[in-house]
Specification:
Elements lengths: L4 E8 L10 H16 L8 E5 L3 H5 L4 H8 L6 E4 L5 H14 L5 E8 L6 H9 L4 H5 L5 H16 L3 H15 L13 H6 L2 E3 L2 E2 L9 E9 H6 L6 E10 L14 H14 L8 E3 L5 H10 L8 H4 L18 H5 L6 H14 L13 E8 L4 E9 L2
Parallel strand pairs: 2-3, 2-4, 9-10
Antiparallel strand pairs: 1-7, 1-8, 4-7, 5-6, 8-11, 10-11
Helix pairs in contact: 1-3, 4-15, 8-12
Bound molecules: coenzyme A (COA).
Amino acid sequence: MVSQVRVAGVGMTPFGKSPERTAREMFGDAADEAFEDAGVDPDDVEEVFYGNFMGEFAEQQGHQGPLAASAAGVRAPATRIESACASSGVAVRMGVEKIRSGAADVVLVGGAERMTNLSTADGTAALAAAADALYEINAGVTFPGAYSLMANRYFEEYGGDREDLAHVAVKNHDHAVDNELAQFQMEITVEKVLDAVQVCSPFGLFDCSPMSDGGSAAVLVSEAFAEEHGLDASVAITGTGQASDSLALHDRESITGTPAAAEAAQMAYDDAGVTPDDVDVAEVHDCFTIAEVLAIESLGFFGKGEGITVAREGKTAIDGELPVNLSGGLKAKGHPVGATGGAQISEMTKMLRGDHVNSDAVSDATVGLTHNAGGTVASCVVNVLEVVE
Ligand code: COA
């Protein structure tokens, strides 16, 4: 029988600017917290999957798997997963599959990224390496640029405008106000978003996730291990899915949808035996405001062309029909790219356990979803988490 995978413990550093801290230090801190939360000894870990994207650029450090394991006090096979901004989402999925295969009972997953020791220009160039070097990078495309192409085309095909996008940013900043781990704990207004300095039309400063430093970790265990050791592990990852798309935007039939997210979601829903209607709360990859719109449509929460107005209508707010990004999302919590997918698991696990600062808003929630994307969603991982006891 396939083993059910429990999230025994989670941890993450505060996200923000800490340019002096190395990725290994940040992952070590997140892992220490996850072990303490889990009540699991690092000696019990049988495998480590660690997400990191730009270590070579930011720290001249490759071969980070063993480095991450040592920082966590673990001696076990350790692999670095690089899948751009989806690196630690993929690491989580690898951990789930390892336990389900029966090859391990305890796996440490997560990731870390150090970004703010670079200038914005150098960080932008490093991030751009997740695009197609031959066709996109050579043409000067950066990620704000690529997503702005998607936003402008979306406006043309489905309507909507900058003000609709501004509501996504305002909502996610609102959600982060009490989240002490978030990079920006401040409210903003639609006017402030619209008046902000322009980054790349139609995006202003507040349409973009920031450059961030941070680490995240989770201790995943088999149900049998949790029972044997009397662990308090009430949340399980019951569904996981992953899909890819062409790296370059020009190779796609349409740039107003993210089919890799739809495919990863369907896989995860089928795996968990749930539908989009069953999801009570979601953490999605809002690296730019338009990315949240595309995500909630691809995940099947809203129809094509409908996602653009739902933040304005309050449907995805803390008191809405489907709260999205209660952590503050990438926009306000921050986006240290290699740590983001693991942080979504950390925040969602706490949300479902009832010990997140925003848990009260979703106290009846039993099903949560995390959506973590790489590049312009050329990689996507969706995980379904459920309260199982
Ligand atoms: N949202 C809100 N405030 C932000 C911010 C953001 N995204 N980015 C920076 N700030 C704030 C800083 O905290 C700072 O405030 P302070 O003066 O009160 O300290 C101020 O704006 C200037 O910060 P700075 O780092 O100099 O900004 P910048 O103009 O160099 O960079 C962006 C801003 C938006 C260009 C940069 O954050 C960026 O490139 N983001 C996208 C990252 C990305 O592409 N990630 C991968 C996604 S696929």
